[in-house]
Amino acid sequence: MSRAPGSEATPASGSALRAGSEIRVLWVVGLGAFLSSVSTSIVGVILPRIGAWSGLGVVEVGWTMLVPLIVISVGLLPVGRAGDLMGHRRVYLAGLILVGLAGLACALAPSFPAFLAARGVQGVGSAALMASSPALVSMLAAPGRRGRALGIISTATYLGLTAGPPLGGLLEHLGGWRLVFWAQVPLSFLLLAVTLPWLPEVGGRRAGRQVDWLGVALLGVGLTALLLAFGRGNGGGLRANWGLGAAGLAAMAAFLAWQWRASSPLLDLRLFRDRTFASASVGALLNYLAIFHATFLMPFYLVDLLGMDPSRAGLFLIAMPLVMALTASPSGHLSDRWGSRWLSATGLAVTAGALLGLGGLSQSAPLPLLVGLLCLLGFGAGVFVSPNTSALMSAAPPDRQGTAASVMALARNLGMLGGTSMSAALYASGQAAGRSAGLDPVSAGMGGLHLAFRVGALLAVAGAVVVLVRPRRG
Length: 474
Hints:
single chain; 78% helix; Growth Hormone, Chain: A
């Protein structure tokens, strides 16, 4: 059996769009990326209020974040493939509608189970926006401006991640935690009204193509089991987590085996035969594994080890995503002129250096040095993301742009979760070793922090090596 992934696609070309049309497309798709990232990041700050409303503890309320993460991770490949088959505009519009309706359901939820169900639906909408946004931009932007356009979408995503926590705190202060979700409703439908006339359709409508339902089922079982195993910590018991992990690995192995045989696979594994696509995918995973060692552990360093007030610590934590947002678009523009290979490697090398610097901090380190290292970490990540995304999207054929965007977003999600779990385990291990050696709690915690950051630096170095494997391209 043979398949030619790019042989039957006749999508709209970005070069056919006039400059004004391209700017409008970037506006609506960028706002959608902002909305999807805000709907994910805005909730963390109101978890204590949700716990007080539901009468549940921290572990139970944590499902407020875990449910949409699982749904997004499982849904990315199916909705990306749906865009390839039915059109990315349709998937994008469906994502906007789901985010708005689910926000309304969250605001009106009479019970915590109903609230969790609404959060799951919101995860489906966010997955649709995450998968369709890069595909739309990649197919509609002129080839010489693709990196810059994808950089703008990355900037919108990081701005959403940056704005989410303070915006959530402000809305909760003004009207309670439900206002956080009420506010998402008019924003979603206002963006929908603007998108309908401005966004053209690309891709899709391939007669005779079937949905790979067996692939969807195997992927859903495998990723859900793995995410539950790694995302709950010790909440479900060590034996249960090992069982979930084993079941997840078995289901994912069956999924990959099936994808080689399926006539219309959910994930065409032949994409990974392209060195650029494979190196960009693995490089993205390693990048997020590395930086989330810092993202997860910096609050512990600032609050638990330095004794900083959480509100003040939050101001320090804005530095990294803010610099990422400022850097993503210029680096994408440079990749259009210079290619992605050395820019991607440079970004990961800077990330490794920043993590090594963080791994050498002491409890008495000057705060300007800390801010400088966080800015350096954000700079490295910003330099990496847009060129790497442009390389991955350019390496995929036109009728697999949705799949390619989903692979990138899935690498990000898995890197976030894996980096969080890995850094937590390393921190706990180093802390326990320090306590066994007779160190005080703060010194033992610093030892765990240093260990985790140095491992994160090694992951970034590995990522730099991986992206250099790709061939030289203009």
